[in-house]
Amino acid sequence: MALRSKLFLPLRGRVIARPFSVSRPRWEAAPLPARKPVGAFRGGILGFLSGGVAAGASVYYYVLDDYRVANEMLNDDIIALQSATMKLQKYLTELEKKFNQLDKK
């Protein structure tokens, strides 16, 4: 008998667990389930919707900021118009007083 067979003679018929360095890991033992591909149609719809939401949100905030700036400018113009009408009214009352004084003379 060869030396090799003499060494393994006492182990004949026994089941020996392999060391961890030789055996495959447990998670590789079973094949992973096949993933369903997303597909171009669903991916395209998802991309279109996410892009539309992002563009809509950015336009919304841009328009909102533009509206705020325009509203502030309008308020400033209204205040300036009120002050101008107050000055004009004051000037007209003074002018009327002067005309009344001239008419009395």
UniProtKB/TrEMBL annotation:
The chain crosses the membrane at residues 45-63. Keywords: Membrane, Transmembrane, Transmembrane helix. PANTHER family: YALI0E11605P (PTHR37849). This is Uncharacterized protein.
